[in-house]
Amino acid sequence: MNDLRATISWLLLVMVGVVGAGAAVLGISQAPKNVPLHKAVENTLAASSYTEMVTQSSPQGTQTDFLVYQAPDRLGGYIQSGTKRTYVYVIGNYEYQSLATVSTASSRHLVFYRQPSEGVSAVDPAYNYLTYATKAKGITSSGSTYTFTLTQNGQTGTFVYTVSGNYVSTFSVSVQTASVHLAISQVGTSPPVALPPGAKVISSPAGSSAPGGSASSAG
User: Fold this and answer.
1) What is the tens place of the pLDDT at every residue in 115-144?
2) Domain for residue 105, yes or no?
3) Is position 150 within any domain?
4) What pTM does this model have?
């Protein structure tokens, strides 16, 4: 699950949010009052579920992750890179990853390679990016937008968060020529996370990410 783990490194990522046009129609008087950034981070990460769209851009190319988090220990979806799609899941103590397939192919009856997981918090983009706000100093705000910079390993990243109501709706971080864009939606209402119907699971040998091991069926 190296592609999914790569989303954790803020040195390679940035995020821009997508705000629904419907809010403007409701009018300012009906719009929910936004909570402060730290409270929005707390509320979002404490939610029972949320949907994430993460776009990573660098000189090496662009990929987009479409993921759903389900408390307390599930994350799943797919990574889109060009015309190829790789399905990735964390369920409990295990990670599951399919081989890359064309994006138009059915997700039914995919083969997943399973290996021990470090846990959802190690690979969930929302968790990893939002928690930076709890450690940051010198945060500036303009309305619902919060910004700060952070220098690490000689590189400076610019972090931008947008709060909508009780939750963080968008995040972005840019470092030199790399960026990541994250949009969070369906907080508390995202669909459950499970391997696709008919999936076949192959356990990778201990200490190896290479295909192999015994096969079993996933319901």
Assistant:
1) 999 999 999 999 999 999 998 999 999 999
2) no
3) yes
4) 0.80
